[in-house]
Amino acid sequence: MHAPSRERSGGEGASQPRTVEDEERLSAGRQRQGGGSADDHAGHLATPVVTPYPTRRIADAPNLRVRIRNAMVGAPYEYVFQPSNDKIHSVWFIPAPGATPVHEHTGLKFASDPPRIIGTPDVDGDVTVRVVFERGDGRLLSAESRFYVNKNPRDMWVPIEPADTGDLELKPHRQARREFADRTTDAPGWDLIGASIRGRAHAKDAKYREDHFDLGRDVSSPPWHVVVSCDGAGSASMSRLGSYCIARESTSFLKGELGASGGTNEDLPDDIGRGLNQLLDDVESLDKDKVQQKLEEVFHAMAKEAVGAISLLATEQSRPVKDFNSTVLVAIARHLPNSSKTFVATFQVGDGAIGVGVPSADETLMWKLFGKPDSGQYAGETVFLSQRVLDDKGKFHDRICHELFDAMPVILAMSDGVSDPRFPSEASLHEQGPWRQIWNDILPTLPPEHLPGEADGWETRLYDVLERYDEGHHDDRTIVIARPTPSAKGPAHHG
After folding, report:
1. pLDDT for residue 98
2. Domains assigned to the chain
């Protein structure tokens, strides 16, 4: 988790930006106007492809200013001159006298009809041109104008390795994993796919990836499926290990407690996993309140296990527990035996988002938010899994969602590095458009019909989706997916 930095404003004549974040802000929209003072980059010249202009005497007009829109390296550019009054009859752009010609590098050129500067700049710095005006009375006036070619922020995010690389084996900068459901039976199930990447902000600052995920299924038939996404706190020095520990412990606990053999933890008051399974065996007379109560027991025991593991890790490393702070998003799903129904439950502490895509009659997925993200008073603040979360029984109830579905849904659990740029407001989390867009982006990357051992390049395709460039959003990105298998033929499988 990477808290957004506070933006610094800059106006006309501001010096060249010194940070990636400032450069990105100034380049966004590429609308900053020219006219600033020259610096060491002054003298860059647009390619002198000039239409003929009158050769009679041209008078300087030093007080006449033409404000030319700034450009950005690598971005197509076009500035069309718009006369400010009807006294201007014609206009030409010409090389500025005395400027050092670097036109073979700038990628810009002059054009006419209408008078304009066009091209794709490939070098940053000041560009100086001279503008010649012909007034309606035939007089010719000229003035110099200068605009700036900003650096492209995408070229400035240079990844750096951490100074201490001891945890790279445990926390590589990229992680991807999948588990296919059993194709040898007709039992419905989900393929589980997860991917996580180090964000540009952490890479630039030589930090580790703080996100983590885990996934798995138990040994029951049909099995319970578990997906977990965790986002370590940017302010916590060891959150990379905290997210790893919470994801691992949560998945392991749920697989053990929900399995066919029942609970194995002797410290638990009863077999909570078996109790939940028994409730779900009788779908026709299912008591939702009892299911909620049993889920609270299951997820509270899971969270307690994870918090205990973090406490032990902190003791071993002689660090405070808060150094390992992390969010946690959990989804469990099972196609119920002796029933056509599917049960899904989620638990969320912190930001990020969990979505469930339910097949409709016309084979489209209808998406719904399946959890309420936590947020703080300020941007970048959230809640992390801790003993305080365990002790707040009233709020703990609200962290759980559950529902029975007639058809097997797609389930997505993602860190805020994925959800924030995709869902720019709280209201957008409840809109179909953003959910459908992210699913449409992901679906082509997922493995085709399962062929064991096949190298299909799915990791690279999914990484490419996660690495989508969104200005102002450079956090770690993690997504975990539960997708109905071909044995569960239907809209959810086909997308």
Report:
1. 52
2. 20-155 (2.60.40), 174-494 (3.60.40.10)
